[in-house]
Queue: 4 jobs
Job 1
Amino acid sequence: MEKIKTRVLFVCMGNICRSPAGEGVMRAFVTKAGLAARVEIASAGTIGMHAGELPDPRMRAAASRRGYELISRARKFIAADFDAFDLILTMDEDNRRNVLALAKTDEQRSRVRAFCDFCVQYDDESVPDPYYGGPQGFEHVLDLLEDGCRGVVESLRERK
C-alpha cells in the first residue's frame, strides 16, 4: 500500500526570495532524510506581481553556495491551495494574515503555521524579507530556513 503524501507549501509575499528558498532547502532536507517519496513541496506568494519569474538572482546565488537549487517559478497563493496542501508555512505575520483571510473553514485555518514555529536554533518570530537589504540578509534567511526545515522534517517523521 502506497503511503499518503504530505503536501507542504511555503508562502512569502512575492514568491521570489523566502518561499522558493524554503522550497529548495526543504526539498534537499526531505531527500537527505529519505522522505522525498512521501513529501511534495511547493511555494507561492501573497501577491502576484512576480508570477512566472525565477527566484531573485541574489537568493539563487546564496542558496547555490550552500548546495541548494532554486528553480521554481513564482505564483500567487489562491484559495484552492487550502485543499491542495496539508501544511502551509508563512514567512511572516503579514503573509499569515493574508493567507488566513482566504480561509473559509477552521480546517483550512488549521493548515496554516508560522514557519518560525519550527525553528529551534534561532528565536526569530518571522523570516525577514531580504529583498531590499544586502547579502547578509539572504544568508540569514537561509540560516532560518535550514533551522526551521529541520523542525518540519522532524514533524513529518512523526506523521504516519
Note: The first strand starts at residue 6 and ends at 12.
Job 2
Amino acid sequence: MDAKITLSFDEKVIARAKKFAEDNNISLSRLTEYLYSKITHGQYQHLEEIPIADWVNLLAEGKVEYQTKSRGRKALKNAYFKSRK
C-alpha cells in the first residue's frame, strides 16, 4: 500500500531529479522509493558507507558514463510489481 509524504528539497535538485526520472521512464515518486529502498536494506551507520556514494562521486567528477537499456513505462511497471511479490 502506498502512503504519501511531503519532502522539501533544493529546487535545483528537484529539477535534476525530475529530468533523471523522466529520462529513465520512471516517476519521481518511484525513483525516490527505489533509492530509499536501496539505502534502508543495508546495514549502514553513516552516509559515507552507502555503496552508491563512490559511484556518485565518480559521476560528478566526469569519470563514469552510466548506460542502460531504454525500457518502456509498461515494462518498468511490470518489473516493479514483480519485484514486490
Note: Residues 11-65 form one domain.
Job 3
Amino acid sequence: MPVHTFDAALTVTDATVTYGSGAQRTTAVDRVSLSVQPGEVVALLGPSGCGKSSLLRAVAGLEPLATGSVAWRGADLAGVPVHRRGFGLMFQDGQLFDHRDVAGNIAFGLQMAGVPRAQRERRVAELLELVGLPGFERRAVGSLSGGQAQRVSLARSLAPEPRLLLLDEPLSALDRALRERLAADLHHILRRAGTTALYVTHDHDEAFTVADRVAVMRDARIVQVGSPAELWSAPVDAEVAAFLGYRIITGNDGDTRGLSPLALRLLGAAEGDAERHSPGSDENAPDLRAAGAGAYTMEGTVVRSGFSRGRTTAVVDVPGWGQQEATAAGITRVEPGDGVRLRVDPGGVIRLP
C-alpha cells in the first residue's frame, strides 16, 4: 500500500464502497488507501468492474463510504456535499451544454460563481489556448469533433481552478489514434495548469502517458502502486503483468517470465528443418533463464502472419512456449508453415514472483 505523507493533497484511508444490502450486497471498493500529492496526476488503472470508478465517485462525494475516510489536506470530507468540495469532474461523454457555445460552456462554472464578465472572457481565452483551441469561443458545440469536444470539456473542468480534478475514462469513447494523441496532450495540459488529478482508465498505455503514478486495481482493491517505469519493470504478479501487456511463460524449471510485446523479433528463415518445431514439441524448448540473461536466437514455425504500422507481425509456435507474437524490424515476407529464427530481447523479459 502507498505511504501517506503529511503534505499529501488527497488522502483516502481504508475506503469501502458497497451497493445493495443483505444477500444482494456487493463490495465495489474494499478497504482502499491511496494518497495524491499536490500537482500530481495519479491514475486508477484496471479492468471494467474492478472498482476504480466507484472509488473516484466516493472521492467526489457521489457515493457514500461504508467505512474509511476521504480527506483533503488532512481535513475529513465526511458530510461535505459534492458542490462544496472544490473538485472538478470530467466524464467520458463530456456532457457539454448544446444550447451554449464553446465559450458559454467553459464559462459556466465561473458564471455560477459570480465571476465578472471581463474576467470570465479572459479565463476562457486562456483555457482555449491551453487546450489547443484558440479562437473557438463562438463555435457551436454540435459542430465539434469528438476530440475537440473533450478538449472543451477539459477546459470547462479547469476553468474554476479546482483543487482536485477527477477524470473518469475521459478518452474511452474516442478511436485509438485520437486517444493516443489526446493522452499526450492531457499530460502536458495538466502539468502546465499545475493540476492535482485522479484519472480513471482501463488502458495501461493511456495511464502510463498521462499519470505520474499508477494504482492498479483488481477485485475492488489496489494491488500495486508505482510510477509507469516501476510497474512495467516489476509487476507485482503474473496477473498484473498480463494486464499490462506481457505474455506469461512458465519454463520447464518452473520459473515464470513475462515477455513484453516487442520481446521477440523476426530475423528470417530458420536454419534447420521447420518440421522439428511442430506444435507441442518441447525437446528444443528455450531456457527461460537464458532469455533473461542476454540476447540469443531460437526457432519456431509461423502459424499466421500480418502487417501493422509498417512492420511484419507473426504468431510463431515456439517449442515449449506455445504460440507467441513476434515483430520484424521492417517488412519481412513470411507465410504459415515457414520455419523462422527469432531474437529474444533481454530488455523485454522480466522474471515474475
Note: The CA atoms of residues 50 and 219 lie 5 Å apart.
Job 4
Amino acid sequence: MRFELLTELIGLTGYIVKEIFIKETELLLILERVGFPVCPNCGQLFINAPKDRRLQRVEDLSISGRRCFLQIDKCRIECSCSYCGAEKIEWLEKYERVSVRYQKWIYAFCKRMTGRDVSIIFGISKHLVYRLDKEGIQKEIDAQEPIEPKRISIDEISRKKGHRYATIISAPNERKILDVVKGRKKADLAPFFKGKGTEWCKGIELASMDAWRAFRTAVKTYCKNAEICFDHFHLAQHFSKAIDKLRINEALKAEKINKEVYKGTRWLLLKNPENLKDTQKPVLEKLLELNKNISIAYILRDKFREIFKAETADDKLIRLTEWMTEARTAKITEITEFLKKIERWEPFIRNSLKHGYSNAFAEGLNNKVRVIQRMAYGYKDFEYLRLKIIQQFNFRNVKSVFD
C-alpha cells in the first residue's frame, strides 16, 4: 500500500486512501471503501450489490495550509429492514458535503467570530457557515440536561426598529437561558409554557419581571404556584419619569425670570446625590429652594431608594408602607399618579421585597444580546438570533476539536 501512513493519519473509518492529487491551494484524496456498505437503520452489512452508486466530493480539515477534499464512492442501498437510501458513513452525515469534524471546526469558530468572517477565512459560503452553526447549536440544545428551575425571569429585548420585540425567559439561579420567544404578548409566551408541560410549570415558585401585563398574565395562567416579583429597577424608572414630568410642568408654570433655573436640571434630579459633581450641587440646590413640589419629590425619591437598602425583608415592607403614606399626603399630581401604579402593583412589589429578588440577571442579558446583534449587524432570521443568544449564554465555552 502506497498510502498506508496517510490513511492512518486522516483516520476515516471504513476507507483507505487510494490516490492523491496535489494542487497549489488544495489536495484531493481519492478514497476506497474497505468492506461492505452499512445500513443506517438496522446497522447490518449490505452484502448484495448496491442499487446504485455515485462519486461524492466532501471537504475535510485542511492539510499543510491546503484545503482538503475527499472523493468517495457512495452507495444507495435497499435493505431487508425496508430502509431505502444512502449508506451509513460514520464520519459523514447524511446529505452533507463536509465531514463531521469539519462541521465541529466551523462551529467552534462561530462561537467567537461572526459568520461572515468565518466564511472568508475558510473560503466557503456564508450560508453554509450559518447552516452548520445552527445545526451545531441545535445539537447542543438537544444534548442538554433538562433545566427544572424554581425561579424564572422574564424580560423583553428590542430585536428590530419599529417596536419589534423578543422575550427572553431565563433561570437566574442556574444562570441559563430557557428560551427566546418572538414577540412579548401572552399568545407569544403560551407555546413555551405549554411545551414545558404542567409538571414543569407547577415547579416554578417565583417569577421576576417588569410591570408588562402580558408577562404577568402568562405566568398566572400557566404557573399557578408562582409568586410574581416586580423588578424594583423598573419601579425606580417609573418614578424618574414622574419626577421629570413634574419638572416640565413646573417649568411651564414658572415666571419668566425663573425659567433659566429649570434648564439642564433633568439629569441632576435623576442622579443619585453621591454621584453629583461639586459644580452640579449648587445648581440643584437652587432649583430645590425655588420649587417646593420638586423639593418634596426629590426627598420622596431618595426615601424610595432607601426602601430597597433595608437589611431585612420586614424593614423593607415597613418602609414601603411609610413611603406610601408620605407620598399620599404630598398631594402632588405626578406623584399621586405614580402612587396609583404602586398601589395597583403592591402585592407583586411586596413579593419582591419579601424574597429579595430583582430582575438583574435578565436585565444584564440585554447588553450582551445587543453585542450579539451588532456583531452580525442584525439578524434577518429570528430563529438564528434565538439560537445564537442561547449559544452565547448556555454553550459559550469552546471545546477543542481534538477532544
Note: The two ends are 30 Å apart (CA to CA).
